[in-house]
Amino acid sequence: MDTKPLLIATNNPGKLREFRELFHDRWPDCPLELVSLSEVHITFEPEESGHTFVENAVLKARFFAIRSGLPTLADDSGLEIDALGGAPGVHSARYGNTARGEDTQRIALVLEQLQNVPWPQRTARFRCVIAIALPDGRYETANGSVEGYIDWQPRGEHGFGYDPIFYIPEFGCTMAQLEPAVKNRISHRARALQAALPLIQRLVLEQG
Asked: Residue 140: which domain range?
């Protein structure tokens, strides 16, 4: 079977690995070759200037689709904490002026901000928007979310980002305590990709 390329527009190795696993789990005979930014020698990325997850996902997908000439999947995702008015939200990856990879510092900041907030008010959700864009400018979006609470301290060794403090009541543990196979069934990114698969089928595989 001939395969078509689909650029996964992220420089986050954890997110790239997760997308590869999600495609394998949900579409075992997927006729797509998942391509990374490094494989097409793109090292720069646009400023995420949008005010919503949708705006940022579309901005990135269209930017990389035009520059690579490939159909592109980009996502914008983050943690929304009700007691913080929805923060970190679209600023999740650099919350508190942190740099890429400084997950420990971001977690510490969130826990400090919530130190006097009782458990019933520590509600939060992970939200993800996926945008699929073509080099000609066409695009579509899909979204997914998962509800939970912010735990009192980090727990678990799996996942990345805020996973160690995101407690999921129905599993009785944090996202980082879930085995990857379980996370890949219930995460916000998994749900967004599930919703995006028909868009990928239509835009990428049936175009032309």
From this structure: 4-205
